[in-house]
Every structure is written in C-alpha cells, then in structure tokens.
Specification:
mainly alpha, 13 helices, about 0% strand, globular
Length: about 240
C-alpha cells in the first residue's frame, strides 16, 4: 500500500500542476478572508475564521476532484492497471494507497491555512475561539476525507480523467449541500426536514465546527468514507 501511495505522491508533485492546485486553494481562501468585500474579516469587525470555514468546503469541492480524477482513470486509459494487478497487491491495498496519497495532498493544502489562525490572533486583542477553531479544522479534515473517497470512487468508473472530475465534483456537491437544500422545501417542514438534512455532509460539518464532538457525526463521516471506498472495490472487482 505504501508503495502505491509514494508512487501517487511522486506523480502528483512531478509537475507544476500539483503545486498550482495547492497554491490556488490557498490564494482563493486568502482573498475571501482578507480581500473580497462582504466576506473579509475586516468587514466582520471581530476576529473570526467563519468566512474561511464557510468557503473552504466549496473550494475543496473542486480541488479534491482535480487531485483524484487521475487515480484510476489514467491507469485504465494507459493500460497500467493490468500491470499494477500483477504486483503482489490486493485491491484493498491499491485503493488504500491511492486514497491515502490523495488525502495527504489535501492535508498539505489545508496545513498552511494555520497561518490564518496566527495572523488573526496577532491582529486581534481578544484572541479567537480556540475550541471552535480546532473543531472546525477537524470538520474540514473529515470533509476532505469524504470528498477524497468520493473522488477515488468516481475515478474508478471511467477511463477519462475529465469525466471523472465532473462526476466527482457533482457527487461532492450533491452529498455536501443537496440534502440541506431539499430539507428546506416546504413539503418537508413538518419534521422530515431534520432527517433529510442529516443525510448531507453540511449538517454534520456544521455540528463539529461548533467545537462539540458528537459520536453520531464521527460515525457519519467514517461510514461515508467506508461506503465510497467499498463501491470503489466493487467496481474494480467487476473490471
């Protein structure tokens, strides 16, 4: 599994594309947090990373599919998947290696954003909500983990990287916000809206971002990861 992971990391960082993707993620978040009107913290009037944690999932929704789109699609297209299968590796190890590599890349993109915490803490006289910030970062990492599993899964359905990107971005968008949107329909306002909202990532992400860890939220995230990786494994067996 580690050999697959290292291979994927080397391949991603062997060109400028990998670095550009991470830089774009950081620049966009920085613009929303410090520059763009109506979203920067100076307009808020108090030290808060709320804007970052609200916009980061939407940027990850595009970044992570760009990272994962070649995971299996390029292997299928280039015929290297058959070569990979001749190695002493199980499907679980192959999937695990590719998933871990993509997740590490996502974490590398998130890690430099800690400088936002330091910057706001230095600019503010009253400090920031440490518990809420830690909870929000944990939620963002779990969100990235689910998006990565979705991206790996979508990449295993096609040998076209562009199609894999589009499928992954759409699937991430659906799982993240579609259930919340459906729950707001007036026909579901009699009580079903709460349970429909619980099916989406946004509901559980917001819960963790409040700084309170609920086992139900953790179970949701880990179940979603296992579910999409299981679909990936089933798809590889069919191939």
């Amino acid at each position: 599994m580690w050999s697959v992971c290292i291979k994927e990391l080397r391949q991603f960082f062997s060109s400028l594309t990998g670095y550009i993707a991470i830089i774009v993620f950081l620049v966009l978040n920085g613009l929303f947090l410090f520059v763009f009107p109506d979203s920067n913290l100076f307009d808020y009037g108090y030290a808060s990373l709320e804007t970052f944690f609200n916009t980061a999932p939407w940027i990850l929704l595009l970044l992570i599919p760009a990272v994962t789109m070649r995971s299996f699609s390029e292997e299928f297209k280039g015929g290297t998947f058959e070569i990979l299968k001749t190695k002493p590796l199980t499907n679980t190890q192959i999937i695990g290696g590719k998933y871990l590599a993509s997740l590490i890349i996502a974490l590398i993109a998130i890690l430099p954003t800690l400088i936002y915490v330091y910057t706001i803490r230095e600019l503010s006289t009253g400090g920031i909500d440490t518990g809420g910030t830690i909870g929000s970062y944990l939620g963002l990492i779990l969100l990235a983990a689910v998006f990565t599993a979705i991206g790996i899964c979508c990449s295993s359905f096609t040998n076209n990287a562009v199609v894999a990107f589009l499928l992954s971005a759409f699937a991430c968008f659906t799982v993240y916000s579609a259930f919340e949107a459906v729950s707001r329909i007036s026909a579901f306002q009699s009580g079903a809206d709460y349970y429909i909202g619980m099916l989406g990532i946004d509901f559980h992400y917001k819960n963790i971002s409040r700084g309170v860890l609920d086992s139900r939220d953790l179970v949701y995230f880990f179940s979603a990861i296992v579910f999409f990786l299981f679909l990936t494994a089933r798809n590889l067996v069919k191939r």
